[in-house]
Amino acid sequence: MAVQGIWSGTISFSLVAIPVQLVKAIEPGRVSFHLLHSKDYSRLSRRMFCPEEKKIVPPDEIIRGYEIVPDKFILMTDEELESVSPERSRTIEIVEFIDMKAVDTIYYDHPYYLVPSKGGEKAYQLLVEVMRRTNKAGVAKFVLAEREYLVLVTSREGALALTTLHYSDEILSDADIAPKKGKIEAEEAIRMKKSIEQMIEDFNPGKYADGRRKKIMDIIAAKAKEKTPVEAPAVEKEGGEGPADLVAALEESMRKVKENR
Amino acid sequence: MAGGTLWKGYVHFGDTDVPVKLHSAVREERIQFHLLHKGDQVKLRQQMICAYEKQPVPTEEQSKGFEVEAGKYILVDPEELEQTNPESSRMIEVHEFVKNAQIDPIFHDRVYYLEPDIAGIQGKGYDGLVKALKEMDVAGICTWIMRKRSYFGALQASGKILRLNTLRFADEIVPVEALGLQGVPLSEKELKIGGDLINQLTAPFEPRKFENEHQKKLQDMIEKKARGEKIAVLAPKRLKPTESDQLLQVLEASLKKAA
Fold this sequence. Notes:
The structure holds two protein chains of two kinds.
Chain A (H helix, E strand, L loop, with lengths): L6 E7 L2 E9 L9 E4 L6 E7 L4 E2 L5 E8 L2 E5 L1 H5 L8 E9 L8 E9 L4 H14 L1 E9 L2 E10 L2 E7 L20 H12 L13 H16 L3 E2 L14 H14 L2
Parallel strand pairs in A: 1-8
Antiparallel strand pairs in A: 1-2, 2-9, 4-5, 6-7, 8-10, 9-12, 10-11, 11-12
Chain B lengths: L4 E9 L2 E9 L9 E4 L7 E6 L11 E8 L2 E5 L1 H5 L8 E9 L8 E9 L8 H12 L1 E9 L2 E10 L2 E7 L20 H13 L12 H14 L20 H12 L1
Parallel strand pairs in B: 1-7
Antiparallel strand pairs in B: 1-2, 2-8, 5-6, 7-9, 8-11, 9-10, 10-11
Helix pairs in contact in B: 3-5
């Protein structure tokens, strides 16, 4: 399979348990530049660096710390973090199903897909098909490293999508910016409805694209004609230098998405 | 309370212009950890490391390159990239209106509240637009330029206010085909029982009842450790996957349990 899992575990509803992998549903659509060292044109990569010892720190020498007072930390190992909510760290348990129509889109945060692991294909497909037919979504909670996510599991074009939701106390009130009770704008609404009526169409997101990307690609194409590309020096591949762990990988992918905004 | 004003502009379609101010609608509060070096507990920093010299590289020695073939790059200057920034504008241009139900939720990115900008000359249209969008159950599909970037979004009514929902561009969404899923035949009986089960487990959506309990538990654990108490390390619970040939029985047992 072409997709790479961010997390693996089980999704369950009632007594049914389906082994799954979480994969990303969003590819940040920016032109993928690489950062290079302008002196030798070698690739740069993001690494954790110890400012004291002036050295790159490998993943097995990294630990999470909660700063209780300045420069004093409570250390937390991955195992300890996992045992905060052991029942949720490897299981996405659907606690109830809801009508898709009932979900206010303001809760949506970030979408992913779930794909079945070996042996889970049939139960996976059953959940996809049954949620499609009933227009229902599953509500679940699960924990990934230090965060607990409230998620919505939905059926999308034959796959299960998992969208993290904001908690209700993260949604700010709009009461202070809502218009004060004024005159009823009935006439205005009627006028607007007429003009909206003439502009109704089907949702077709493919029509819209970020024009900037094309402009950047044009610049690159023009330069490629005029100039010979620079060449990076050969380097030996070193293992174990990837992101510290899955959470780092996840945060890295979130960061990329956010940078693209 | 809504977040502070982020941007000011006006919604435009036909001969309508509604001046608005953008506010953030969501604020996340989470326990923050630092990544430390195990031995000396020094806070680690992310640094860009040169693959060749294995040394951190300062920002002024970093350049952007587009890989044309393996290990070969076309360099692009920041000034050249700047030229590609869209021209700044204050207009949120509505191109068409669509039924709310047609918008695939996977497109939803972030939401802003729009406040009527009473300082604007034609501030009156706001309430009328809220009413019209609500009664017709439609969203305005729009584009705008903010902070030197192009955005694509859906203008929607909620309660008394307008919201601007940024949408992801279509080519940023991983198509389901890329997942390589394979169809598995299901019997009508399995689907029927599965449907009954889901209906049985359906409840109204009440987001308020879901609290971030984990955050509280994590805070407790940190405090325990701060007092020097020992932490019991628990193994994560793992469920045994349902076997395909047991699916029907498990669904039937679930239904019995739920009823």
